[in-house]
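Quick check before the chapter quiz. The format below is the same one you will see on the exam, so make sure you can read both the input and the output lines.
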Amino acid sequence: MIKQKWRIPPMLGLGFKLEKGQVVRITDVMGEQIADFVAYRTDDTSVRLDPGVTKKNQYGLMRPILVFFQ
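Here is the expected output.
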């Protein structure tokens, strides 16, 4: 498995593609920043996980695009 690490300064972002089965871990190293995390399906970008719209539509997705676990 390829492991990559990025340190993203506050107020900036990063985009990347994950294949099925790959895992992303977001860690707040300072303990103060909230991560705005947005995910899109590559085959249909209208299906997305976006904090701006997910709360009101969270039960409307027919196919999951992400699986969260601890």
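If your answer matched, good. The first strand starts at residue 39 and ends at 40.
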